[in-house]
Specification:
The chain is α/β, with parallel strands linked by helices. The chain is built from 10 helices and 13 strands. The protein is 32% helix and 26% strand. The structure holds oxa(dethia)-CoA (UT7).
Amino acid sequence: MTSRIIGTGSYVPEHIVTNDDLAKIVETSDEWILERTGIRERRIGIEEGTSFMAAKAAQRALENAGAEAEELDLILLATSSPDHCFPNGACEVQAAIGAVNATAFDISAACSGFEFALSTVQAFVQSGVYKTALVIGVDCLSKLTDWTDRGTCVLFGDGAGAAIVRAEETGIIHTVMGSDGVRGAVLSCAARNNGNFLNGKQPELDYIYMNGQEVFKFAVKKVPECIRQLLDESDTDIGDVKYFVLHQANSRICESVAKRLKQPMEKVPMNIDRYGNTSGATVPILLDELNRNGQLNRGDKLILAGFGGGLTWGAVLLEW
Ligand code: UT7
């Protein structure tokens, strides 16, 4: 028994912010952003927060799967930008969609969150604990972005993607996850409350920090490496993979991964031009687009792969 994706959904905020809009608040240009990242515009939630976007994506995924919320016995929500410390975002989605029979919790693995969540669902399904799960990748990084830092603020957007996963005979073939906490400082957001009545510390507000070049080097090495591991361990020929659905952080990273794997860009779809880097949501949003555009057929082999803060990385090989 394995877990199969039977429906997908996504949601992005209505408000579009173009590169030219950003050039009005920081010293940058449409030309620089497009050439260095592939991004033309991104969506920023004015009122739409993490749980709101996640619930919208979840409802769309349920509709797409032809499933009812009551059928869900597990909700895993991957985010590094929850609206609150608690209740967790998964419980808020549970309440919003009426998934009264589900156990719900969050997973934090930054941009690799969706792959981590899918791998966790797979373990639960294989062990027979749960049968029907909702997996969500969602982030609202606009609330954690320093809008005066041109090195990061041009990159991110808000959004959510979701998948309904059910225990079936075919579906996920293999998963790989990894972490390197020693190098965590190259991509971080240190907002925290370390205070109590003894140490007298106050809550600290902080924003995303990124050493872009270090993260870039990490990504172009680690993503092909973990995809090769996934293929080797599952004895799969790379030529049999129809699409590599990669984390949308930078079009140059996607191109470099394709080159290192000796795969044509037709097998590496991208939508970063429209949404920027929505962190844990990029892979499920892209998957939902492929699904709704009719580009996926039963039996197609796909690899989903992400990397990000932690540092973390993860990849999932599945049959559609
Ligand atoms: O999902 C999270 C993972 N994050 C990532 O995957 C991001 C990985 N890194 C990247 O995508 C790239 O490193 C960036 C897009 C962030 C930066 O591109 P880069 O080609 O590595 O640029 P750089 O940092 O080497 O900067 C080159 C120049 C610098 O100016 P000088 O020192 O050469 O005069 C920067 O100050 O570009 C400047 N610069 C900008 N110029 C205009 C940096 N950001 C901007 C900007 N607009 N927004």
